[in-house]
Task: structure prediction
Amino acid sequence: MKRYALAVLPGDGIGPEVTAEAVRVLRATADLFGYRIDTTEYPLGAAGVAQSGDSLPPRTRDAVTQADAVLLGAVGDPALAAAEGRRRPEAGLLALRKLLGAYANLRPVVVHPALRHASPLRPERLEGVDLLIVRELTGGLYYGEPRGRDAAGAVNTLRYTVPEIERVARVAFRTARERKGAVTSVDKANVLEVSLLWRETVSRVALEYPDVRLDHLYVDFAAMRLVAEPARFDLLLTENLFGDILSDEAAVLAGSLGLLPSASIGDGPGLFEPVHGSAPDIAGRGVANPLGAIASAAMLLRYGLNLPEAAAVVDRAVAAALTAGARTADLAGPGERTVDTREMGDLVVRLVLNRDRAGAGQGVA
Result:
């Protein structure tokens, strides 16, 4: 029996609740396909600070590099909002990405037909939306030096090297081949020298992929098009800061941040996490939407463990649950019955184990 070792980092807030459901779904796929998943939990973020005073404790640091893949819940705690250095929860996440060499972040955004009402955009604008944002994850303003602040001001440095741009561009072009064969690269080349380097480098890499169409957009125009004509996009390639902003904007299309997964891949084990934050205001109430975490587990199967058939079963189960009318509080419209975090997980597990019903969009009792 094939065995896979997963490092599970539940994190903070609602992270442990949604991660628990994702792990249950992963175990269901293991039962279905006849492999074994071994999971071990480790602290990250505020949980790491509470245990060791470090948002990325040494024990966690050692474990993630030895795992086949890493599943993360969420990080963040208002009580540590003013913390500095390694005591800041978000610093642990940034350090984790760097440790794993996870330089390419993949964020799919698909609008389920049953949820068009959940978006503030008109339903007709959402028809056919199925896009992927490929965001460079380890460079740019978040990591550039020098950085810091004093009483007179503050500085962050925007820096990219040619190899950093080349490697994420190749991820985008390879992935585009599996989709519609089109890449839209986002920059601000009319203002920023770094963006001019980005555009030139991406254009040069594109020559290696003559079967993929490339076009370029300035980030401000891309932001406008993302809400005006979202179905026109298939794959967006962008640097770190722009990708952070655009992917959160794109979450509006799907109707809830709670639906969206992500995969961060690169030189080491992949890191898979829902796009949403730790949401401490609803933690412990059982109302968090686990579908983003479950969809992240599907990406873990696809990109982290190379189990595309199992990943497809999970994706179909999530879609079937929504088709059948299952709604957590963030998705429910007027008069719609809601399910709690555990109930949504129960449903997806049942649909995974009965994949014929999942494919037919049935299964809600």
Summary: Residues 15-33 form the longest helix (19 residues). The chain has two domains: 1-109+260-365, 120-254. The radius of gyration is 20 Å. The mean pLDDT is 94.
